[in-house]
Amino acid sequence: MLTLMMLFTFFAVGFAIVAAFVLAMVALKMTFKLVLLPLKLLFLPIIAIAVIIKLAVLLAIGAALLAIIIPIAVLLAIFAAPFLLIHALT
User: Fold this and answer.
1) What proportion of the chain, given as a percentage, has pLDDT over 90?
2) H-type helices in the chain, by residue range?
3) Nearest 5°: phi and psi at 16?
4) How far, in Å, are 1, 11, 19, 40, 90 from residue 14 at the CA level?
5) Among 48, 22, 1, 63, which residue's Cα sits nearest to residue 40?
6) Which tens digits make up the pLDDT trace of 12-25?
7) Cα 61 to Cα 55: distance, rounded to the nearest angstrom
């Protein structure tokens, strides 16, 4: 019986130690979040500007590619149209 009580005590103390460790880690995580929040708020406009510039560059590259592809497609259609008509008639 004494062995069973010692085993239960061992498990209870182990559980208390693990719970205290988890509580300390959660408190440390919250502390880091609170400490780093002003830095996060400080860098938020810089990150927003970087994202806007990135989107503008991607949009400009997409527009340039579209400006190159459309004339090529028109020329291809002009040169391919007679062959397509001949194929449709035969």
Assistant:
1) 69
2) 2-89
3) -65, -40
4) 20, 5, 9, 38, 88
5) 48
6) 999 999 999 999 99
7) 10
